[in-house]
Amino acid sequence: MFLDEDIKITPLGAGNEVGRSCIHIAYKETSILLDCGVHPAYTGLSSLPFIDKIDLSKVSAILITHFHLDHAGGLPFFTEKTNFRGKVYATHPTKVILKYLLNDYIRIINASSDTDFYTERDLKSCIDKIIPIDYHQEIDIHKFKITPLNAGHVLGAAMFILEINKTKILYTGDFSREEDRHLKSAELPSFPLNILITESTYGVQCHLPRCDREQRFTSTIHNTIKRNGKVLLPVFALGRAQELLLILEEYWNNTPSLQYIPIYYASALAKKCLTVYQTYIHMMNDKIKIQALTKNPFIFKHIHNLKGIEHYEDKGPCVMMASPGMLQSGLSRELFEMWCEDSNNHTIIPGYCVQGTLAKEILTEPEEIDSIKGSKLKLRMGVSYISFSAHVDFIQNAEFIEHCSPQHLFLVHGEFTEMSRLKSALAHRAAQRNVEMQIYTPKNCETTAIQITGERTVKIVGEVKEESIIEGIIIASGRGEVRIVKRGGESIENKRINMLENKITEITEITETNQITNEMKDKPTNEISENKSINLKDKISEIKVIQRVIITTNINNSVIKSTLLDFFSNSYVKDKNIWIGDIKVNLEEESIILEWNSNYINDVMGSTVGRVIEDVSKKITCCLGKEEALIKVLRNYFYVEQNDGDILCQGVRICLRNGSFSVENGEERIREKVRGIVERVGFIYE
């Protein structure tokens, strides 16, 4: 039996498996989904999480950690094919990249099925519903406060902190504690956690040092080319692919004898993918930012984009990077079947492989494999596993867990055997450190309830006499505090007190949540008894709650101000704040702050004002025109002038024709830098 005060955690996917990540968290009437992926070993409805186990109409929000399909591939189905009506949040890069990946995914998956899993129209509608967020931006979802942190796994990957009544939960998604060639490592929370939900992909395995992996990777490729062979690198179009491209580009630059050998990045998304990475360099590590000052690190000299197999000419040795990463279908599968019977060729698996996929199968070195068409093929080519997977290994995961110091640890996103070994190893380490920590390895659809404990406190006006104690309420004498304890708590005299349920209900309705402190307004003397002492039984109505709502928006505050003054007839400006009846709207801070004394009328009005502000934010996506935005960005780098409708930057002329910019004249070095800025601004306005 679960109590209302319990937080209930249920894996709907990724419970004792890798794939279809989806964690359901429920507290009272609020429920949130963490990710909604698909399983790479299955197709269609069978690839989805077990969503029939919950009522999706009651889910308030879905938080997407990153763009990989096993964490986000089911999102269009959730938003367009079910009764889910909540909000969806993801970081800016995740939203942009997910659009491209899902478009490619549905094209492949629908081609192999009689019915569409979801359509391009579904996808567009889904992407439009995603609310982009920044790292460390606070989001309020009913009783939860949500904060995303950098996860390091791929560009834009986030971990989510969920805070409810001072109970802190962290869901890591996939994360990496190792800084690589372009991404920062995952952040460490700055406070202890009550509950940690973390991946266990690699269990107790430990990665080789990065330099050793890179040396083995490049030497395997070099040796294959020496014997006139071809190298296949199955990867997902975005993520580890960009890291491997940086390694290959550097190795080819330093090895002249290889520079006549082509490297192909075979993906219909290749050009778009690299444009996205160029756009978000500011979110990467310092090493890549420094490189970007002189040269765009994602414009490659030795790597060629290949849209499809029909554009490939077999003229000898080459390195081919193709998706998907687990060889389950698509271009990487076609190339593998073409090359697998030649012993001169080699496949390098650079990331984690899920059970049931061809990539996992060939690591067992079978003599033959089944082709897509059902025929048998001899496996004569070499196969190596060199992991560049951006997941924590055992040491990194254990150190992260010990830093977070959770009371409750949930292991997800791991195969049963590896997860069981990890649980035993972590329990052993905790025992050695004399630390109490409950470790859970829930199966799919298995619910675990964690009880929230805590106090409810309110501040009151005036003196409180000890004899005015109500059953179930403790007076902290001399401090002007009323402290409510749970059943069986002790009074200040350490005596047992009986709780009256109706009193607790009354206080709960006023304080709303377990551990919120509500400040009371000072009241005139004539509104309190003459001796200023309060009898709580008679004066409980004197307690007031001040509601405070913080809204983050990318809209200029002048637009919000104008809209509110036009929309509400009872609005006026006082002391730089807008007042709408009793609702104060503070536009002076970075975020918009609404504040009011809580009662039925004010709560309804406050909710209406907040909804108007959110609606304006959705409808007005940017206050700057394309040309104005470009000028604003250019002025961060150059002296900018305008002449006859054109923009001049230190001798370089930018012409606007039919909605597009062209870059002309000027010194080549400056022209290239200006062209890069123009392309990025243009990409934003596509």
TrEMBL record:
GO cellular component, one term: mRNA cleavage and polyadenylation specificity factor complex
Principal location listed in the UniProt entry: nucleus
UniProtKB keywords: Hydrolase, mRNA processing, Nuclease, Nucleus
Top-rank taxon: Eukaryota
Subcellular location field: Nucleus
GO MF term set: 5'-3' RNA exonuclease activity; RNA binding; RNA endonuclease activity
Domain Beta-Casp residue range list: 241-362
CDD domains, sorted: CPSF3-like_MBL-fold (cd16292)
Entry protein name: Endoribonuclease YSH1
